[in-house]
Amino acid sequence: MPIPFIAGLLWNGLPPWFPDPFLLLKIGTGIGAITLTKLYTSGATNTSERKMHGRVVLITGGTSGIGAQAAYELAARGAQVILLTRLPPSDPFLVEYVDDLRERTQNQMVYAEQVDLASLHSIRKFATKWIDNAPPRRLDMIILCADVLTPPGGRRLVTPEGSGVESTWMVNFLANFHLLGILSPAIRAQPFDRDVRVIIPTCSSYIGSPPLTEALGKEGWSPGKAYARSKLAMLVFGQAFQKHLDAYKRPDGLPNNARVVFADPGWTRTPGMRRWLTRGSLWGLVLYLMLYFWVWLLLKSPNMGVQSILFAALEGGLALDAGGKLIKECREVDFARRDVKDEDVAKQLWESSDKLIEKVEKEAALQRARMKQEREEREKQAKEAEKAQEIDSLVQAIKKGKEKEKEKEGKKPRNRKKAKTDEKKAS
Prior knowledge:
The chain is α/β, with parallel strands linked by helices and 427 residues long. Helices cover 56% and strands 9% of the residues.
């Protein structure tokens, strides 16, 4: 069959039913260009693996976007995954999400704990409960995927706790600073043969951030600057936290076994990215859907975005080298700014963050005490009102009883007179 067909092509040319070669060339070139572009924008795939059975992993932001994909991948490898979420574990959505994750990964060791990253009090409640265990609870990995952003043109928001902290700074940096600060004893208390990692996802927006030595006030604030500054702060703090871990002298005299690793997932189709591109508006969403082909072509899927995080979690060589490395496209890269490793900037950031946390926690404690007092006062007033109502009801019941007795007594003489009249008439 092939030989006669080829001979026919040579002697008679292309059959009439065969498409135009130039059209085929155009279509093939277009499909090839799209395929190559998509392969390039999808980035590298993680090839590192290690056993995760029995390992305990804390994940923030594990219910959406890259965090959800990271939770799935680690749970599928047998890790015990604890999702730190704003919602309580009894929330119907969260219950369904955890059950679905358990079913898809065939791993029942998936749990949820309530930690509101917009509340320092909520973070302290969870972290102190974690480290209060004796002996210390196992902790192999912390992945800090949670973050927030304000769409372009959005207004500056503050957290409700205390005098309030700008929400992007609070959730993206200060909450992580507070959480790791309290969990630090639990991280350092892990046995020497345990590979402990703190994985901090970041993005290239930190390159355009204003210096951390310059305060970002209300006048100079913008969504882009706030987000970039929070990412730069996490990089600076992560380097300082690694030095903090390295400086700890273990009782057994062995070196530190915890590593801080930064991972840049790249531009990914996450809910946060969608909110940024659509500017949080309905018309933006319509435009986003109309141009979705280009979004699909140029941005990674969550599955490809998580690959660098998986490399940071699974690559065995990272446990042997010094911490503080930046992973991008499943390989180590250099930081784009020198001030990431500036010790003076890190010291100033650490001290100012400690002071801010102390101030907000004091104000929040006073606020909670005031609210508790007001609640107790309202409950007391409600009880007094209820008691007064009971007394009033009792008094009204007594009055009604007396009135009925009076009515009965008033009716008796009239009844006697009527009886005598009736007797006279009868006689």
